[in-house]
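Dig into these lines:

——
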Amino acid sequence: MRVLVIVKATADSESGRMPDPECMAEMGRFNEELAQAGILLAADGLHPSMRGKRVHFAGKSRSVIDGPFAETKELVAGFWLWQVKSMDEAVEWVKRCPNPMPGDSDIEIRPLLEAEDFSPAFTAELQELKARQSAQAEAGKHA
């Protein structure tokens, strides 16, 4: 199963404070363990919300809201995408993770929806379209 591992934002991450070199080294070693175990699919940190935008949908109309966004506890500072055998395995890996923030922090784990989760709406035609899109995205990574 694939899971998105979400590092929740804190006042420090929203202020633009970068992790210290020791934290970066610890996280680098942890990411290497994930890669060696064949779990790591992707990982990145995000700029503070002051550099972001939100697009609000109301029917057919769209409005753009500039960051920063007020609810720090609802914001994301970074993420991993992992391939694991179970949610329990993901939890065990997160417990081994170095604290990504200088103080208290939270990491949320969410399973990704897979094609079979959309049945019967995920028709053979849509499955074929998704396969083509995935192949194009993969080819783009190697271009």
Summary: The helical segments are 11-14, 21-36, 87-96, 124-141. The chain has a mean pLDDT of 91.
